[in-house]
Amino acid sequence: MSHLVLTGYKNLQKILTSDSYRRVPTRFFCALLQMSHNNHQSPAPGLMGLNEVVQVLEDLAPLSLAESWDNVGLLVEPSKPRPVKTILLTNDLTDNVMEEAEAVSCDLIVSYHPPIFQPIKRLVQKDWKQRLAIRAVEAGMAVFSPHTSWDSVRGGVNDWLVGGLGRGQVSVLSQAYNNTKYTHIVEFQSRTERLDSLLGELKALDPVTTVQDTHRADDDYTQVRLNCSDSVLTPVVDKVMQHIISCHSLRILKLEKVPLLNHGQGRLGVLDQPLTVATAVQKMKSHIGLRHLRLALGQGCTQESFVRTVAVCAGSGASVLKGVQADLYITGEMSHHDVLDAVAKGTSVILSDHSNSERGYLAVFRDKLTQRLPANVTVMVSKADRDPLVVV
């Protein structure tokens, strides 16, 4: 008998031994106990719970790839667990998208842009983002945001965007690195009899500090190699110096971050077949699904000028594209002065408006996610989601 059922029986026993139980039908207590058990049981066989689906999402695009300033992952978690049967993918969570989610009885909304970004001190109706979070909670819907983890991951938003111009050699503009909590290796010799005491003191400084290796140097001394983070390096070294007989036995090594190949922000494509600027514009219109794009021709360029190298960054890409040598920049939005800088260097610029440079990837991700989930889970791309700006 499970703990929950056992607890239910104990509570039921207390009720039945009270003076008032005879006034209530026995079937009421049986139904109450069954309801309590059903509310806490795991999803039925063949169905996936929220945690399982979130794990699949994180496997497809690890959250460690997201920028440090970003707010990614599970943002809204219902209090009552239920199987995930319907998932709605959207670029932005708006009132229209929430109405769509409610209409299809959505269990999980995957919103590319995080609807909760800045710290929240209260949940009130006058703020539209807080209002949407409240509606999600009331409907028992979870909300997950991948944002820049989708930008960085191989095969993600930026690879989809650069692929709109055709085949070519693609590289990352801003390299992603392995996210490790350790920044240094500290090596030293400690008196063997005092080693346990020293390691205890180091662990107290920071639980993250771990011993990588120990081996006897001789009968009296043990060689120690440990990992530590930059934040505790100074106090760690101070403790070590109190236990070693000579500073010559101390060595500190700085760990370099390991690059994650093909992961990172932005992409630089060298096209197998050069295109004219005019052809590049037409290809991107078809790829993104827009009738109009904004174009700034680089100095000395015309629409018949050839494009061999293209740098792309979905969303607002000026900071990633700045200084990159390419015939063409493609992004969602750039400031007036950033566009002028690019044009002055002979680089043409295509702008689609922010979310238009990202939204098309939702259909690609739907197919990836569907392959990883049971057939009884429906993955939908929002029909109500759209960029707030239109050409009129």
Main attributes of the structure:
single chain, 392 residues, five-stranded mixed beta sheet
Element layout with pairings:
Blueprint: H1 3-16, H2 26-40, H3 50-60, E1 73-76, E2 86-90, H4 95-103, E3 108-111, H5 128-139, E4 142-145, H6 148-152, H7 157-162, E5 168-177, E6 184-191, H8 195-205, E7 210-216, E8 221-228, H9 233-241, E9 251-254, E10 259-276, H10 277-288, E11 294-296, E12 306-316, H11 318-321, E13 328-333, H12 336-344, E14 348-351, H13 361-372, E15 378-381
Parallel strand pairs: 2-3, 2-15, 3-4, 12-13, 13-14
Antiparallel strand pairs: 1-4, 5-10, 6-8, 6-9, 7-8, 10-12, 11-14
Notes on the structure:
By secondary structure, the protein is an alpha/beta fold. Helix content is 33%, strand content 26%. Strands 5-10-12-13-14-11 form a 6-stranded mixed sheet. A 5-stranded mixed sheet has the order 1-4-3-2-15. Helix 11 links the parallel strand 12 and strand 13 (328-333).
